């Protein structure tokens, strides 16, 4: 036996000295981090030493980004310099802008466009493997990738609609400029701030699947674009970042409050999961969902009344149908509501999540790149026992 997993063996140590861990690596600690953490039982998460929810309520996108990259909230001068740097970097490199219509022609999914475009960005900007880059060079690549992400997404959205992309305005703040580049109009202060609060609250969230993916790639010394392409691929799955538009679709399908309970029963009986509910770590309410509910209540809109009523009804039904699982609304349930009310199309919900999460991914990549150890776990082989002779009838191919 080379190693074992929790599929067949309880957590422990094998005769060969391999450590076995629970399936899905749940609760397995793989490294140290100074970036933040999630306390699932308490319903609390933090960036550095601050509550992330409190940060979302009190600071802007650039301040939280500075905190994650540099370890402290910026003073006024630092913030002005950082905001100016971000504004300049938000402008898309010409070579990438030229490629974007071709990339958009391959798919109508803006998240897929971002995945391909960031790979192309790595090429046109000439970034080098993290293995060869010093700390300043790696930081510069990370700043540029985060800054250009909203510009790529907004341009993709407009190109898909047959509209001309709108250039970034370096004089605006990041969240508001993103909304402007998507919609073509300067957003109201309420819309810009609501989206900014959402973005700050979703920048980072412990060792989630996409962050771990990014760190695994960074541990090989690959370049930053490679880390982001992998992270986006991991993020795109409905169990991770792909749920907010599906959660809003559920609200549309339910339509009126009285239909919520039979709807959720029907779904569970059919073996479906309710999108926007449940979490891999939280065993109590998701603090991001609670915060976003408060943000959504800033609108006097029937959608908010429907969403809060449906949340209660689904939560009660899930408590009966899946007793003891503690299934509550997660970040994605109210994310869709807030983004819709702020004027974003559902096709942009998951991509918009990336505008935020790319900060966390890159901060994690920078941290991981300082660790020389490659991440390389093991698996428990459960196939036919080796070595067996290759069957005699197999013919060796001749060289062509
Ligand atoms: C997020 C998620 C993947 C976490 O999964 P997980 O920690 O692996 O949870 P488990 O798969 O162990 O689920 C535990 C139990 O709750 C059930 N469950 C979990 N989430 C559920 C949901 N959203 N709807 C219905 N049942 C759910 C599972 O079916 C399982 O039931 P079982 O014990 O009868 O088999 C899961 O909750 C999910 O798929 N949610 C919907 C997608 C979503 O909103 N994703 C965004 C996450 S922020």
Structure characterization notes:
- This protein has 400 residues and is mainly alpha-helical.
- The protein folds into two domains: 54-239 and 349-369, Orthogonal Bundle (Citrate Synthase, domain 1), CATH 1.10.580; 244-341, Cytochrome p450-Terp, domain 2 (Orthogonal Bundle).
- 54% of the residues lie in helices and 4% in strands.
- It is built from 16 helices and five strands.
- The protein has helices at 52-58, 61-70, 76-90, 94-106, 110-124, 135-160, 174-183, 189-201, 209-219, 224-235, 244-254, 260-269, 287-296, 302-321, 331-341, 349-369, and strands at 12-13, 19-20, 36-39, 44-47, 50-51.
- A three-stranded antiparallel sheet has the order 3-4-5.
- Helix 6 (135-160) packs antiparallel against helix 16 (349-369) and helix 9 packs antiparallel against helix 10 (224-235).
- The longest helix is centred in the middle third of the chain and has 26 residues, at 135-160.
- The radius of gyration is 23 Å and the shape is globular.
- The relative contact order is 0.14.
- The structure holds coenzyme A.
- The site of coenzyme A has 16 residues, from helix 15.
């Amino acid at each position: 036996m080379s190693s074992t997993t929790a599929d067949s063996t309880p957590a422990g140590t094998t005769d060969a000295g391999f450590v076995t861990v629970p399936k899905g690596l749940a609760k397995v600690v793989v490294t140290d981090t100074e970036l933040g953490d999630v306390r699932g039982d308490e319903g609390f998460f933090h960036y550095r030493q601050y509550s992330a929810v409190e940060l979302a309520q009190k600071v802007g996108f650039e301040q939280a980004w500075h905190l994650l990259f540099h370890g402290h909230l910026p003073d006024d001068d630092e913030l002005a310099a950082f905001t100016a740097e971000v504004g300049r970097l938000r402008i898309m490199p010409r070579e990438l802008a030229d490629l974007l219509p071709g990339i958009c022609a391959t798919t109508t999914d803006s998240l897929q466009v971002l995945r391909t475009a960031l790979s192309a960005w790595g090429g046109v900007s000439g970034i080098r493997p993290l293995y060869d880059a010093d700390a300043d060079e790696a930081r510069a690549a990370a700043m540029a990738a985060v800054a250009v992400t909203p510009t790529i997404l907004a341009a993709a959205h407009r190109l898909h609609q047959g509209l001309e992309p709108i250039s970034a305005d370096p004089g605006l703040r990041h969240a508001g400029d993103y909304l402007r580049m998507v919609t073509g109009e300067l957003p109201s202060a309420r819309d810009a701030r609501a989206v900014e609060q959402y973005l700050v609250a979703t920048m980072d969230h412990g060792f989630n699947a996409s962050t771990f993916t990014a760190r695994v790639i960074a541990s090989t010394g690959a370049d930053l674009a490679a880390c982001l392409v992998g992270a986006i691929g991991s993020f795109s799955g409905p169990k991770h970042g792909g749920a907010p538009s599906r959660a809003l679709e559920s609200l549309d399908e339910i339509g009126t409050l009285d239909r919520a309970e039979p709807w959720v029963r029907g779904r569970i009986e059919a073996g479906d999961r309710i999108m926007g509910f449940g979490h891999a770590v939280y065993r109590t309410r998701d603090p991001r969902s609670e915060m976003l509910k408060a943000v959504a209540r800033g609108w006097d809109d029937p959608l908010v009344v429907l969403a809060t009523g449906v949340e209660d009804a689904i939560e009660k039904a899930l408590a009966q149908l899946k007793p003891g699982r503690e299934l509550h609304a997660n970040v994605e349930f109210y994310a869709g509501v807030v983004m819709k009310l702020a004027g974003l199309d559902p096709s942009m919900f998951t991509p918009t999540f990336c505008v935020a999460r790319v900060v966390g991914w890159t901060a994690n990549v920078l941290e991981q790149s300082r660790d020389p150890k490659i991440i390389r776990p093991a698996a428990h082989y459960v196939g036919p026992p080796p070595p067996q002779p290759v069957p005699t009838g197999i013919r060796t191919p001749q060289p062509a």
